[in-house]
Helix-turn-helix domain-containing protein
Amino acid sequence: MGRTTADAAKALSRQMGQRIRAIRMMRGYSQGKLGSLIGLSFQQVQKYENGTNRVSIPVLMQICEVLDAHPMDIIGEGPQDGRDKRVNALLQRLEAAESKLKILQSKLARMQKIFAEPD
């Protein structure tokens, strides 16, 4: 049985949300920062990124302006199941790298503190 229009719309919303999230993270913005720059709560940004809520054209344009992205970077080529997996894999790798970076920054700060202490 083929996909319905509603199924395709949901898939597109999820994929757009994943792309918004990926671009937001590459730009170094939190959900709260992006939300405040476009006049929304971080919860609303989170709903867009999860595909729970659909992104309207005016909001899409605001997001693109803030993230310095072209709308097609977010809209993409439409629902593509294989692409979902690649985006998720890249996001997981990015999150893992960010986690490791935070640990290294914490260790570096502790080392700097130790070396700064007088003998």
In short: The helical segments are 5-27, 31-38, 42-50, 57-67, 71-75, 81-116. Residues 81-116 form the longest helix (36 residues). Residues 5-116 form a domain with the 434 Repressor (Amino-terminal Domain) fold (CATH 1.10.260.40).
